[in-house]
Design brief:
Elements: H1 2-33, H2 35-41, H3 50-58, H4 64-69, H5 76-98, H6 106-129, H7 131-135
């Protein structure tokens, strides 16, 4: 049941963030986060490649990234699917670890290592494709 609740919460949160980004965009970002955040994240909203966004979502990134993704020209339905698929591995890992998966033996270590590799790779690609954001 925890995975179902987690995926449901992830979907609701992603939908709200994407819709807010699409509807209010930089105005809300500037009002809530300040001008320094706008400068930091403004370039990222120009990325209109679904594959690049999937890689960014797979890597370690703050939840604010969903709001910024909503400012792209990618259709919302496609972007929602990419967001859920990209954010799901971290949510599943947290749920499994939180549910007491320590008795999984070596599979826990294998899974955690795989997730770590994906996160590091996503972070590397994030820095490669969004150098302005990564330097800030």
């Amino acid at each position: 049941p925890a995975l179902l609740y987690g995926v449901t919460g992830l979907g609701i949160g992603a939908a709200i963030a994407l819709l807010a980004g699409r509807h209010w965009g930089l105005r809300l970002l500037a009002r809530v986060a300040g001008p320094e955040m706008v400068a930091k994240w403004a370039q990222l909203r120009l990325i209109n490649s679904p594959i690049t966004w999937l890689v960014i979502f797979l890597g370690p990134s703050p939840d604010l990234i969903l709001f910024v993704a909503g400012m792209t020209r990618i259709p919302l339905a496609r972007l929602f699917l990419i967001a859920v698929v990209g954010r799901a591995p971290a949510m599943v890992a947290a749920t499994v670890l939180g549910a007491g998966a320590a008795d999984m033996g070596p599979w826990l270590i294998v899974g955690a290592t795989a997730i770590g590799i994906v996160a590091c790779g996503g972070g590397f690609l994030f820095k490669r494709f969004a150098p302005e954001v990564a330097r800030s």
